[in-house]
Amino acid sequence: MNIADLRKSYEKAELNEDASHPDPLRQFDQWLTEAIAAEVPEPNAMTLATVASNLRPSTRVVLIKGYDDRGIVWYTNYDSQKGRELAGNPFAALQFHWVELERVVRIEGRVEKISEEDSDAYFHSRPLDSRIGAWASPQSQVIDGRGVLVANAAKYAAQFMLKPPRPPHWGGYRLVPDQWQFWQGRKSRLHDRLRYASTPSGWVRERLAP
Questions:
Q1: 8-119+168-207: which CATH topology?
Q2: Which one, 16, 37, 109, 113, has the greatest CB density within 10 A?
Q3: Is 189 a catalytic residue?
């Protein structure tokens, strides 16, 4: 098989200005709700792109844990590669790709840490194994093998028992959007693509050529 010959015709839906919401958060809420209802695999998974001080970009998949008028929230290790890159450059981009619905959402903006109280509340809502795992994994650091993680997990499980506190290096981030893009696949590669840009007077919606 020649990978260059792979083709797909996108014909499931359309996205036009009249039917889309003037507020991008409402449009996002509608699409995420539809992705969940359609039972697409991991509809809450999003790619996070950051840029290091040497200007090299990197991406990874994280899970959205909340969204409102303030922005998009996820949780992670602050000492990880993404945490270090965000400390040096607080601008980032997110992307959702719901393949089965032929849709993509891209979000750009500035990233900030959420409050310690909110991080505490979410941490203590997690399963016990996940809370222990936050202590056990020195995320993005080189380790000698999986045995290191297993040993760390056993160590912290014995130390904290059923009540591990939130690690000081673990918590939430919020991306505050200043740009959204919504992409709906269409036939003949004439896709629908709407961009929302933040201005002092509110969101401006524009159609971009695909």
A1: Pnp Oxidase; Chain A (2.30.110)
A2: 109
A3: yes
